[in-house]
Design a protein that fits this description.
Blueprint: H1 2-17, H2 33-37, H3 41-45
Length: about 50
């Protein structure tokens, strides 16, 4: 069970570090294209440099 939890957190961490975690932003998937254009996905989904 512990390995499953560790695996889930590892996958989530990799997704966020790659800058592909925009789908974690609440309401992002249901937003219109105009609303999505207001977000800079990488700044919300990846750590800052």
């Amino acid at each position: 069970m512990l390995w499953f939890i560790i695996s889930v957190f590892l996958v989530i961490s990799i997704v966020l570090l790659m800058g592909k975690g925009a789908f974690f932003i609440a309401g992002y998937n249901t937003a219109s294209d105009e609303e999505k254009a207001q977000y800079h996905e990488k700044s919300y989904a990846a750590p800052s440099d």
